Amino acid sequence: MGQCGITSSKTVLVFLNLIFWAAAGILCYVGAYVFITYDDYDHFFEDVYTLIPAVVIIAVGALLFIIGLIGCCATIRESRCGLATFVIILMLVFVTEVVVVVLGYIYRAKVEDEVNHSIQKVYDEYNGTNTDASSRAIDYVQRQLHCCGIANYSDWKNTRWFKESRNNSVPLSCCKPNVNNCTGSLSRPGDLYPEGCEALVVKKLKEIMMYVIWAALTFAAIQMLGMLCACVVLCRRSRDPAYELLITGGTYA
């Protein structure tokens, strides 16, 4: 019964190491996705530390690939030193992922304040040209999130661009895609997105941060199982003189 348990632990451990390699790619993808997406919205928040969880999760992803390699070699070769190193590194990565989750929740809570603080300034800097970064950011957000203005399209009346243009219209990025010949005129509000961008930007950024949090939590749980299996193998090997090898089926003296 005990021998069956140790063999099962080793088999599960090898399988988990293969999962770690897949997890490494997934975590790096999630981190890169956060970076790319936040780059599109970086004008709406000023705290660059918001990206710390994404940086850490990419580093964890790279480290998981190395962990998977160490774990596979240590398990197959029945190396006590390798398995001990594997457990220690897994513990460190587990603690790191817990930190990522905590930071994720902290910065997720700060997103709304950051956007509320910055969005009015970004809209005030809008000048309607593609060469201006703030203008490109606003047009991109309004098209992608199907929104117009801060709370609604009437907020454009308070911007410098609206007052200088004097044509009683909002940017064309406020136009609904299914409306033909939309000029952004406020005299035809049915052509415009009715919802403001502030709440949608906050929602989008919070969703992105939740991807990081859930990815970290999921793989932290997998790592706990990996540590448990490695500890079972280590304890059994040190106590049992007839230790069964995973590959040959023989015993370890």
Automatic annotation (TrEMBL):
Keywords on record: Glycoprotein, Membrane, Transmembrane, Transmembrane helix
PROSITE patterns per the UniProt record, alphabetical: TM4_1 (PS00421)
Pfam (any one): Tetraspanin
Entry membrane topology: Multi-pass membrane protein
Transmembrane segments: 12-36, 48-71, 83-107, 208-235
InterPro entries: Tetraspanin/Peripherin, Tetraspanin_animals, Tetraspanin_CS, Tetraspanin_EC2_sf
Chief location bin: membrane
Keyword Glycoprotein attributed: yes
Localization in the cell: Membrane
GO cellular component labels: plasma membrane
Function recorded in the entry: Regulates the proliferation and migration of oligodendrocytes, a process essential for normal myelination and repair.
Family according to the record: Belongs to the tetraspanin (TM4SF) family.
Oligomeric form and interacting partners: Interacts with claudin-11/CLDN11 and integrins.
Name the record gives this protein: Tetraspanin
Phylogenetic placement of the source organism: Eukaryota, Metazoa, Chordata, Craniata, Vertebrata
